[in-house]
Amino acid sequence: MASMKPGIAKSTMSSNPAERRRSERIRLTVPMFVRGTDAFGEDFLDLTRTLDISARGAYLASSRMMKTNELVSLTIPAPPPASSTPVPATVGPIQARVRRMHRRGDLHLVGVEFVSPLD
After folding, report:
1. Which of 25, 31, 67, 93 could connect to 73 by a Cys-Cys bridge, CB 3.0–4.6 Å?
2. pLDDT in tens, 44-62
3. The pTM is what?
4. Taking the domains of the chain in order of start, what are their residue ranges?
């Protein structure tokens, strides 16, 4: 009989490395500008939103169909500064690669991996 470390349930362990996350996902809706080339070869700049985000990627809800492996540029708009402190008007751009995409109704759910993980 195989022994297991105390406190680790077998059901929480995955034998498939592809199923293990390298960083924790946070369910967070963040508005985000996405710039790239869509599945039809057209350049675009769209306002979309995240469904979840991690240090290594994000899951986006977009009206635009994109191609897998395509590079996109993500920019998070920031609110106007409340005082005279020098706060940037946007955060980014963050370079990301489209890793997966599927359609749900009128939306395209797009999984992107950041080229460089966020700090």
Report:
1. 93
2. 999 999 999 999 999 999 9
3. 0.72
4. 25-114
